[in-house]
Specification:
Layout: H1 2-19, H2 21-25, E1 45-49, E2 52-55, H3 56-73, H4 80-107, H5 113-121, H6 127-133, H7 143-152, H8 157-185, H9 191-202, E3 204-213, H10 226-235, E4 241-242, E5 246-255, H11 260-279, H12 283-290, E6 299-301, H13 307-313, E7 321-327, E8 330-342, E9 345-353, H14 361-376, H15 381-388, E10 399-404, H16 410-418, E11 424-429, E12 432-442, E13 445-456, H17 461-477, H18 483-489, E14 494-500, H19 514-520, E15 533-534, E16 538-548, E17 551-552, H20 555-583, H21 589-595, E18 601-607, E19 612-613, E20 617-618, H22 620-627, E21 638-639, E22 643-653, H23 661-686, E23 690-692
Antiparallel strand pairs: 1-2, 1-23, 3-18, 3-22, 4-17, 5-14, 5-16, 6-13, 7-8, 8-13, 9-10, 9-12, 11-12, 15-16, 19-20, 21-22
């Protein structure tokens, strides 16, 4: 608490968060999943950019910081997927920093001393300064607090270190903004482009069409040749550029969910626990010692517990006992210690005294009592706050703003919510001695103090051992080419994880797949992975089925994937031949329709920018052909996504001339400039040699 303490508690997160501005700034989508020269670097090298190594010892603390942000955001509950996301965030920030620093040097971008002064304490403060020293209500920066903290760093090495980090981050953000402005200012739109865009969105067409759907030919009646595959592959090569290596595997799961015997054992245990719980003299201690899930022994509001419990427990009077009741995957036992109506939020002011600077708790309490009596006698709370306060509200008259339950330490929260408006209280917490003034209490709802026990229904060691034995037996017996056959023989279901990237934190049906994925990237295609993997609810045995390297994939790598598209391409040839015969000698779309046993379908007022044929599908190629055709002329067959089409344009309706070309350009520039930032960053990556070895470490 205090400017210095506040910075110490908050500063741990700004490094990763600040660098991550690059990612938001450049609209990064999944642009940074670059290739995997996985096995060619040293043990301590997580990756490299143009030969510049990223060392594990430097990189891992940033992963931990990113993970800490997730834990703070989600209350400490972080799963395997979130861990992978935290690692990706750190990686993306690292790549962004390296590439952008090279660009800044190349372009000669710098932040001058005057600019930095202005960002730190001038009229145009950095967003980070606003975040740490700004008033939450007004957004105004407390410049006095900034100057006080800057001066204090001369005597506080830790504070100086934090200011050095903050200043470096402010410079980075300023450089990022300069670079972004350069990119944005390079974008322009010509009058011709503006007019074309206007026409594409406003020009209307009426036409009639006949289509033969691909589904009108059964797959069994189509013979696909190697030449058909090759033709499709050659025409669509750009689609098969793999940005990062992927691997596919199949697996068998051996469940370790609780059996009926396990359920009965836990039920017996919980019933005995309930008997002891009812008679214990110390409810909170008993609950803390016996619960698998810790619920704070403080007042909580509705909506914080399991829904099945939450819907009933707030109707119970003090002294009531609830349970044992099974819901979700656990048994619940609850004693209602107290219930009452309490404010939803409190507006308060605070003076925090630091006992370590006053000679101990006794002196701090003595000073607090003197200040309290002076304020009760008419002295200004704000004046005392600005003089003695050591927390972030110093310089603000001690104003803490409005807060709800769970936002303050328990001692402070209880005093604020259990008191009354206008009351002055002295409270001790882990931060020091508080003089609390309750300015206002807002709203009212029922809260309850509960002694809460939750016992998870878990498999017994016998159940786990039996499942592990099955998995081990299967692993010992299976070979790569017998994986499916042996699984089927034993009645096991085979799961599939397709195109898994090296750093992926999830896989279908697997709750903790990282160890498995890591091993899959050291195996050869066809290998059965050499160990049994432990998930939350199963043991898993896996078989690597496919390796798709980074870069241009060969036809053999994508043959299975493109089979449906090749099938449609062959059908398109067959249907085109049928429509060409119908076109021969026909002078109208209705005549063509009659020959193929169809009725020509009219379409009214279609626009180029929305190429959806009503009742069918989005057909970009077909609609493009329609807008490029002459009125009244029968088209040639056009193969689309859904089938093959023949059409006749009945007429176009042109919009009124564009009224404001400048406004049209401005709208287009806004959209293009936003996309251009991502495009520029992608271009930087494509020109760089990025090696990603993270799968060896995470």
């Amino acid at each position: 608490m205090g400017v210095m303490t506040f910075m110490r508690t908050k500063m741990g997160y700004f490094l990763v968060g600040g660098i991550a501005v690059v990612l938001a700034l450049f609209v990064l989508e999944p642009l940074l999943q670059q290739g995997t020269a996985i096995f060619g670097s040293s043990r301590d090298t997580v990756g490299s950019v143009d030969g510049e190594d990223i060392k594990y010892t430097d990189f891992n603390p940033k992963v931990e910081q990113s993970l800490a942000q997730f834990k703070q955001q989600y209350g400490g509950n972080v799963n395997a997927q979130m861990q992978a996301m935290a690692m990706d965030n750190a990686w993306q920030a690292e790549i962004g920093a390296i590439l952008l620093n090279k660009e800044y040097t190349r372009l000669g971008l710098t932040v001058s001393g005057d600019e930095l002064f202005d960002l730190l304490q001038g009229k145009n403060p950095s967003p980070l300064i606003v975040q740490y020293f700004g008033n939450q209500q007004t957004g105004q920066v407390d410049r006095a607090a900034v100057l006080t903290s800057l001066k204090a760093q001369a005597k506080d090495p830790k504070l100086k270190q934090q200011w050095d980090l903050l200043q470096a981050e402010i410079e980075k953000q300023a450089l990022q903004q300069k670079y972004a402005n350069l990119i944005r200012n390079s974008v322009y739109v010509t009058s011709l482009e503006a007019n074309d865009e206007y026409l594409n969105r406003n020009k209307l067409v009426n036409f009639k069409y006949v289509n033969l759907d691909y589904s009108s030919i059964l797959d069994k009646d189509v013979k696909i040749t190697d030449a058909d595959y090759q033709d499709y592959y050659d025409a669509n090569k750009k689609r098969f550029d793999n940005p990062t290596e992927t691997r596919s595997f199949e697996y068998v799961s051996f469940s370790i969910k609780p059996t009926s015997a396990d359920t009965l054992a836990v039920k017996t245990q919980i019933e005995k626990l309930a008997t002891d719980f009812k008679s214990t003299p110390n409810d909170s201690l008993f609950a803390a010692n016996n619960s698998d899930v810790k619920v704070p022994f403080t007042y909580i509001s509705k909506g914080k517990l399991d829904p099945a419990v939450d819907s009933v427990i707030f109707n119970y009077p003090a002294g009531s006992f609830y349970g044992p009741v099974f819901s979700g995957s656990s048994y619940k036992l609850i004693k209602v210690i107290d219930s009452r109506f309490s404010p939803d939020s409190v507006k308060a002011s605070n003076i925090l005294l630091d006992p370590s600077k006053l000679g101990g708790d006794a002196n701090a309490f003595k000073l607090a009592d003197s200040i309290k009596k002076a304020i009760q006698g008419g002295a200004s709370f704000a004046s005392f706050a600005d003089k003695y306060n050591t927390d972030a509200s110093k310089g603000k008259g001690g104003d803490l703003g409005t807060f709800g339950r769970g936002q303050m330490v328990p001692e402070f929260e209880n005093a604020a919510f259990n008191g009354s408006t206008g009351e002055l209280k002295i409270v001790k917490s882990q931060f020091g001695i508080h003089i609390l003034k309750i300015e206002n209490q807002i709203g009212s709802s029922k809260v309850a103090k509960l002694a809460y026990i939750e016992k998870n229904l878990l498999p017994s060691s016998k159940t786990r051992d039996a499942a592990y034995k099955k998995a081990s037996t299967f692993l010992n017996d299976v070979k790569g080419d017998t994986f499916n056959t042996l699984a089927q023989k034993n009645g096991y279901t085979v799961g599939v994880a397709d195109k898994v990237t090296p750093t992926q934190g999830f896989a279908p049906g697997l709750d903790n797949p990282r160890p498995l994925i890591k091993d899959a990237y050291t195996a050869e295609k066809g290998d059965v992975l050499s160990q049994v993997y432990t998930m939350d609810n199963a043991f898993v045995v896996a078989h690597l089925t496919e390796v798709q390297p980074k870069g241009q994939l060969a036809l053999a790598d994508v043959k299975k994937q493109i089979q449906p598209m090749v099938m449609n391409a062959v059908k398109a040839k067959m249907l085109t031949e049928k429509l060409n015969k119908a076109l021969s000698g026909s002078s109208s779309i209705d005549a063509v329709a009659q020959k193929v046993g169809k009725v020509a379908t009219p379409v009214q007022n279609l626009v180029f920018s929305n190429p959806i044929i009503p009742g069918l599908a989005q057909e970009n190629k077909v609609v493009g052909a329609v807008f490029g055709s002459q009125v009244g002329k029968l088209s040639k067959p056009v193969d689309g996504d859904k089938g093959v089409y023949v059409f006749t344009v009945e007429g176009f309706t042109n919009p009124a001339p564009i009224g404001n070309t400048y406004k049209q350009k401005e709208t287009m520039i806004l959209g293009i400039s936003q996309r251009s930032l991502g495009a520029a960053f992608q271009a930087l990556q494509e020109k760089s040699d990025i090696k990603d070895n993270r799968v060896k470490f995470y």
